[in-house]
Amino acid sequence: xxxxxxxxxxxxxxxxxxxxxxxxxxxxxxxxxxxxxxxxxxxxxxxxxxxxxxxxxxxxxxxxxxxxxxxxxxxxxxxxxxxxxxxxxxxxxxxxxxxxxxxxxxxxxxxxxxxxxxxxxxxxxxxxxxxxxxxxxxxxxxxxxxxxxxxxxxxxxxxxxxxxxxxxxxxxxxxxxxxxxxxxxxxxxxxxxxxxxxxxxxxxxxxxxxxxxxxxxxxxxxxxxxxxxxxxxx
Length: 234
What we know:
By secondary structure, the protein is of the alpha/beta class. It has 10 helices and 10 strands. The protein has helices at 40-47, 70-75, 93-99, 109-119, 121-125, 136-148, 166-181, 193-199, 217-222, 224-229; strands spanning 2-11, 14-24, 29-33, 55-60, 63-64, 78-81, 154-158, 185-189, 202-207, 210-216. The N and C termini lie far apart (37 Å). The model has no long low-confidence stretch (mean pLDDT 93).
């Protein structure tokens, strides 16, 4: 489905991604692990068209996305839930969700809104509430729901558990699994490595802009380096 080959991305003279290659197959949950500054967010921003690589290629179903505007990448089926949620604080819950469908003109928007409410019943209860007054967990639900309104085939999730209480983290990850079972492929960036590896089929470890390790979730969870660096084990 998604093939990323030899990405080199710069911020000015800073070489942020140094030959990143990865793949995500249809229906998979793939996780991208790494410490702060490793390049995880840069990778997702490049895949969604917000950054332009100096070298390399990103292909969706064999077709290059290089030079494709971010809103056109959304229309091709890739949506991005950014780190920090980035909801529209002054809009209501429903208005935020409708913004997620801004590229669409079909008649299925209302039914997709109800689909999001079935995944996140809390949002239905707060549909008229101003988004900036929601709790952190509710805002994360809203950010994911907004992305779902574009009917993605591939969902890019950047740190969905950040700043949430453990009980909400479990709820968010259960929801990610539900979304995947409904047919959405997921590329997950997450610092909570144990939780990410518990729901992913495969994963990559990014270190200072390059892929240091890759394998099945089980292989990575059993890897001594991963256990020491990301799972908090001696």
